[in-house]
Design goal:
Helix content: 25-40%
Radius of gyration: 17 Å
Structural class: alpha+beta
Shape: globular
Strand content: 15-25%
Number of helices: 7
Order of helices and strands: HHEHHHEEHHE
Largest sheet: 4 strands, antiparallel
Length: 185
Amino acid sequence: MATTQSLRRAMNDLKLEDKDRSDQERGQLMLYPVDIKISSMPAQLPPLPPDYQTHERHYTLGWRITNSWVRNFGLQASSRDVAMRTSNLFWLGLKQLKWWSGYKHLCSFTTLADGAPIPPRSTTGEDAPSQTQRIIAVTFSATRELLKRRPTQAQYDWFVQLFEEEPIWYRDLLPKDRWYLHDVE
């Protein structure tokens, strides 16, 4: 119980760097772990963009994040002892997001930023796109199996409450024929 109260207080200080919320609005965020023992239907996801089958990129559903936001979440969702023994605070934050949400398929993913032009086929060296966006991803359009793998409605609602917005579909950084380069199972 003390951990839940501590996290709830700490969550008041978390926000994405580019969001502007008042102290009162941040204080309204009440966060508890998702009870995965309670049955919940698969989440109703926003529809895929109409061009998802013909577009040269796969789509990824998720929420915008920054590295510092994930690190702060990890610090504030963990005990001081765990945080002090962890060398990779980003990994700790991602692990805590998985634990609190109960969604083990959650991953950090780099996508093209909204409105960014499609980069050339090469994504290395000087051709690498400069307009990218890191997100917390919950599902992908790459394969039928990945698209079927989605959070429960309770988990989805938890993420919406945490990020205070619905997720959106982002374009993958790599072309479809290079999907295999991602470490997504």
